[in-house]
Amino acid sequence: MRRLAAVLALLALAPRAGAAADDAAGRRPGAEMVRLPAGTYRPLYGRPGDAPTAVAAFRLDRDAATRGEFLAFVRERPEWRRGAVRPLFADRRGYLADWAGDLDAGDATDRRRPVTGVSWFAAKAYCAWRGKRLPTVHEWEYAAAASATRRDAGREPWFVQDLLTRYTTRPRPLPALPAGAGNLYGVRGLHGLAWEWTADFNSVLVSDDSRGVGARDHDLFCASAAVGATDPGNYPAFLRYALRAGLTGRAAVETLGVRCAA
Amino acid sequence: MPTAAPRPVSLPPLAAAAALAAGAILASATLTGCSIGSAEAAERAEGAVPRLRPTPADAIVGEERAVLTAAPNVPPPITRAHATKVIVELETTEEVKRLADGVSYTFWTFGGEVPGKFIRVREGDQVEFHLKNHAHSTVPHNIDLHAVTGPGGGAAATLTLPGGESVFTFAAMNPGLYVYHCAVSPVPMHIANGMYGMILVEPKGGLPKVDREFYVMQSEFYAKPGAAAGAPHTLDMERGAAEQPTHVVFNGSVGALTGDRALQAKVGERVRLFVGNGGPNLVSSFHVIGEVFDHVYGEGGTMVTQKNVQTTLIPAGGSGIVEFGVEKPGTLVLVDHSIFRAFNKGALAMLNVTGEDAPRVYAQNKGLPMAAH
Lengths: 262, 373
Description:
The complex is a heterodimer of chains A (262) and B (373).
Chain A: H1 2-13, E1 33-36, E2 39-41, E3 53-55, E4 58-61, H2 67-76, H3 120-129, H4 137-144, H5 157-168, E5 195-196, H6 235-246, E6 256-257
Parallel strand pairs in A: 5-6
Antiparallel strand pairs in A: 1-4, 2-3
Chain B: H1 13-32, H2 36-44, E1 60-65, E2 83-100, E3 103-110, E4 119-122, E5 126-133, E6 144-145, E7 165-171, E8 176-181, H3 187-192, E9 196-202, E10 212-221, E11 223-224, E12 234-235, H4 237-242, E13 247-250, E14 263-266, E15 270-279, E16 284-289, E17 293-297, E18 306-309, E19 311-314, E20 318-325, E21 330-336, H5 340-344, E22 348-354
């Protein structure tokens, strides 16, 4: 039985004929990681005059995890199947809600779409299963601040506008991967597809009522961070932080997926 | 404020007295239940604020589900003479709809419509508000109803993930016409994308009877064309920040209330407009061409603040109620009299009045042929 599961997992992981856009090395989109060099960036929330936040070098999946990859995971780890997952770890109303069954992630094209409707617990377990981990908020934002040509494009009006447009006109259903042009680091689809989990999504809390910026004390998790935006024009970042503020570890949202780091 | 902890030392004498009185009322409420007598005394005190008065007349009797209407329709007047528990259900959605001819826009909505569905409750009602966010939404949403007394006007209790639902209750303490809107960060974007509507808290005893009531809400859009031809427009960040809209509209799109969709009334009828302004930026100089407002309830309050008004200001995030009789057949034109907005950007709606001609009210005696209506 175990062996069968392993074979099935291998089948699910194997490159599919439909995945014509696999990279030159013939690897699956989700398997490949890119290395991001150490650097600094200026987070949305911080005190004026704070030094930029340092981010150590790390690796990040070039593409988001696909349904097919997540299927391989739940085949091997039945406790994360839709019908078996513990409600403490995933809100069952949303968990893999667009799958047809516990082990039915759709046809070959569907299985190349980004997986969404996964809880933080499931996303974390998935990355661990891959021998990886979830990126931190700082890592994710650092990677996401890059345009195709610049490391820190977060304050460039055209980049802000481009992200706003992408966020509000996301395709449904999400496209099969790989999709989206790579940014400077070669990371694809960070902005045009689904939101993505981070390890410490709740470390910076945005007020649920956004107009009192800086007026409230939110050091539930992040003892040092006084909340106050450094860049009120960075609406895309506000959208991301607002989503994070609404999340709990068991939340399973149809527009939220996962990408692993290492 | 009587609701604050009494700190008589730091307050001027009157406020201190009020605070003490409120404290005493609070104490008596806690210990013995509310004494009507002392509550009324406090109400008469200078600077008193509206409070819940759990008198027998305000007992919550029964329960009903609010009937919400899409603009320009308004739910029927409330006829019951008692307060009740009202269940309001509203869902936030994100959808592509027409903004103007040849321009589609990715709207964020309350109830699938811009402006959001009209809610009508009665002063004293206990409102149980269910806010759902559609599973396909990109972002979380919440609701700040200006009629609500409490943190964020409800926003603090209703941050709702896509696919989720929040429920909160509030007492409709202050009668009047109020705007509601989404207040999730970044709030200007949520409002600029269409997330506003209105709630009427009808005063006890209701509003004076009229023949027609309409829901008209102005707002403006900052539309940037999509990259591909025919792709929906989205918020233009630079225009929004510069307060330079591409479209200024009544009821969510250019022409929403013109032609076949014009408002209708008959000669001799009295008309009431519930006028709101979602903004996000502009203040409206609301005017009806060919009519004078007999009554204006300034800023959506419960008192007729002025009679015989030509143009009334509707603040962003605010409202006004205007009433007038229609005495002459023809088309009345609703505009924002900041007139480039009407002529160039869409801030124009129509009210068609039909019925018997009234030459004594208005007649052309000499000149070019009158435009046909």
